[in-house]
Amino acid sequence: MDRFTWSNGLLEMNETLVIQQRGVKLYDGEDKAKLDVGIALLSTHQLIWRDLKNHECCIAIPLSQIIYFEEQAAGIGKSQDPILLNFLKERLTEELSQKRWESTPMSQPIPTATNSQTGRTRAVGIVGIERKIEERRKETEKNISEAFEDLSKLMVKAKEMVELSRSIANKIKDKQGDITEDETIRFKSYLLSMGIANPVTRETHGSGTHYHLQLAKQLGDILLAPLEERGGMMALTEVYCLVNRARGMELLSPEDLVNACKMFESLKQPLRLRIFDSGVMVVQLQSHSEEEMISSALDNVTDKGSLTAEEFAKLLGLSVLLSKERLLLAEKMGHLCRDDSVEGLRFYPNLFNSQA
Amino acid sequence: MSFEWPWQYNFPPFFTLQPNVDTRQKQLAAWCSLALSYCRHHKLYTLGIMEVQECPVFNHKNIDRKLSTEAILIVFEELRKKGNLEWLDKNKTQCLVMWRRPEEWGKLIYQWVSKNGMVNTVFTLYELANGDDTESEEFHGLEEWMLIRSLQALQTDGKAEVITMDDGKGVKFF
Questions:
Q1: Which residue stretches, if any, does this entry annotate as coiled coil (chain A) (predicted)?
Q2: Three-class secondary structure of residue A337 per DSSP
Q3: Sequence-separated contacts (24+) of B49-56 with Cβ below 8 Å
Q4: pLDDT value at residue A118
Q5: To which H or E segment does residue A191 belong?
Q6: Does the distance separating the beta carbons of A339 and B22 come in below 8 Å?
Q7: HSE-CB for B95 with a 13 A CA cutoff
Q8: Nearest residue in B to A335, CA atom
Q9: What gap in Å lies between CA A196 and CA A159, rounded to an integer?
Q10: Element (H, E) at A272
Q11: Any idea which of A10-14, A25-29, A42-46 has the lowest mean pLDDT?
Q12: pTM for the complete prediction?
C-alpha cells in the first residue's frame, strides 16, 4: 500500500486510459484500507483509484512498480462482476507486458522501482533504455522481412503475369483472324495500364507504334466535341483527365497520350498538338485560327483598358493557363505590352507601337 | 514654364522593362528622350544614382509606378551609347548628363560668335558662359567642364583654340 501515492488522477499527454472498473475496494494486505467504494482506472502508465464519494480522494501507483499481481476470489457477497474483473485483470497483464509507460515517460519522475536490486537504481534505467532499443530493432527487422515477403510474392505474380500476357499475345499473333484489331488494342492497353510493357512491340515510345496510331484515331473521335465546347483548345492535362475518366478502366499513361497526340498531323486528323514557348502543351482544332484569337484578345484588352490573365480567363471561359498563353503570344507579336508591379501582371494594348 | 510630361509617363507599362525586343527599343528611346528633356529643363548636368531613383522622372507616385534600378541603369547605358551620358566613377554611382552633346554646344557657341562678327577674338571662359553679352544665349550658365569639352570639340574641327592665360583658360575663334 505504501507504493501508492496521492495523485490528481489526471492523465499525462502520452498516457491513455485503457479500462476503468467501478465498485472497486482497496485492501491493504489483509486489512481493508480506509478507501472503500471507488473506481479503478487502468492507464498505460499507472493504476489509479478514485473514491466515488469523494472525488478529490485519488491515489495512483505507477505500473512500473507493480511487480506481481494475482487474482483473489471476490469477497463475501460477490459485489463485483466477475467478467469485468477478469477483463481488468487481462488488461493489467497486457499493460504490464507491453510496458507502454517506458516508451512514453511521464513528466513527473517515477520513483525507481524498489526491487531486489536496490543498490543499482541507475542501472535499471539504462537497462530499460537498452531493452527499448533492442525491442525497436526487433520490430523493425520483423517489419522489413514481412514487407519483403510481400514483395517477393508480388514479383512471382508479376513474372507469371508477364508469361501469361506473352503467351496470349503470341496466340493472338497466330490466330490473327479470330480476334479483332480493336480488341487487341484494348488488351494491350490494359496491360500497359498495369505497368507491364507491351510484349509484342519492342518500342515503348517513338512515332512508329501501331498502338499509338490507333490511339490517335480514337482520340480524334473522342476529343472533337469537348474541344468545340472549350473554344477549340484544351491543355494536354485537361485532355488526359477527360480521356482517362471516360475510359474508366484501361487508363492511358501520359507518355502514350503525348505520343498519340504527336501523330495527329500525320494521320490527317483535324486536331493538332501544340507546344508553347513556356512548354505548355495543348490540343487544338486545326480549324482554330491563332490570328483570330490574337486579334480578338487585343479587342478585349483594348475594350477594358487592361487585363490580367485571370480577368481574361473569366471573360472568355478559358482556363487561366490558356488565357495567359494567349496574352503572352499577343505580347510576343507586339500587340500587347505588360505592366509588372506589386499589383500583379497586367496586359495593355501596345501603345508604344501604335502611338507616336 | 512647367515641365510637360510625355504621354508614356502616365502609361503604367512604361515603368516595366518590356520583354518584346521591338517594344523595348521604343520604350527605351522614349525613356532617353524623357530623361534628357527633364535634365535640360532643370539644367541638371550631373546625376547620382541614389537620388535619381526618387526623382519624379523615374518614380511616378501618382500612378504608383517606378522604374527599377536595373532598368534605370539600362536606360543610362543607352544614353551613354548615344553619347549623352558619362560615368564619373567605376561603380556607376555618379554621371554627367549631356542633354546636349559637346559638339552641339560648340556649334551653338560658334554660331553666336560668327553672327556677332567676333571671329578672331579671344574670350575668357567666364566671359563666354557668364558674360552679360551672352545672357540670352542658351549656353549661358554652361558648367565649365561642359564648356571646355565643347570648345575642345571646336578645336578638333579647327574652329577654335583653347589657350591658357594667367588667371584661367580662354579661347580664340577662327
A1: 130-157
A2: strand
A3: B49/B73, B49/B92, B49/B93, B49/B94, B49/B95, B50/B93
A4: 41
A5: helix A181-193
A6: no
A7: 24
A8: B23
A9: 10
A10: strand A271-275
A11: A25-29
A12: 0.54
- Our measurement of the distance from residue A97's CA atom to the centroid of its chain's CA atoms, rounded to an integer in Å, reads 34
Contact B160, B151 (CB under 8 A): yes
pLDDT per residue over A309-336, tens digit each?
999 999 888 888 889 999 999 999 999 9
Cβ contact, residue pair B19, A350, below 8 Å:
no
In this model, does residue B124 exceed pLDDT 80?
A: yes
Residue A169 DSSP code: H
- Does B13 contact A339 at a Cβ distance shorter than 8 Å? yes
Q: Residues with Cβ < 8 Å from A83, sequence gap 6 or more?
A: none
First to last CA, chain B: 37
Which of A70-74, A90-94, A195-199 ranks highest by mean pLDDT? A90-94
Residues in a beta bridge with B130: none
Of B7, B13, B27, the CB nearest to A355: B7
Q: How far is B18 from chain A (nearest CA, A)?
A: 7
Phi, psi values for residue A195, rounded to 5° = 95, 5
Instruction: For chain B, count helices (H), then strands (E).
Output: 6, 8
ipTM reported for the complex, 2 dp: 0.80
Shortest Cα distance from A230 to chain B (angstroms)?
29
Q: Which residue on chain A is closest to B67 by alpha carbon?
A: A341
Contact A76, A32 (CB under 8 A): no
- Rounded distance between C-alpha atoms, residue A91 and residue A96, angstroms: 8
Q: State residue B157 phi and psi, 5-degree precision.
A: -80, -5
What pLDDT, on a 0 to 100 scale, did the predictor assign at position A104?
A: 53
Residue B64 touches chain A, beta carbons under 8 Å: yes
For residue B8, the chain A residues in CB contact (below 8 A) are: 351-352
pLDDT of the residue at B136: 83
Of B23, B64, B65, the CB nearest to A337: B23
Report the amino acid identity of residue A312.
F
Cell numbers that stand for A315 in this block: 471573360
Mutate to test the interface with A, among B8, B15, B17, B23 (most CBs of A within 10 A): B23
Check CB contact under 8 Å for B16 and A339: yes
Which of B8, B15, B16 to mutate to test binding with chain A, by most A CBs within 10 Å of its CB?
A: B16
At A23, the amino acid letter reads: G
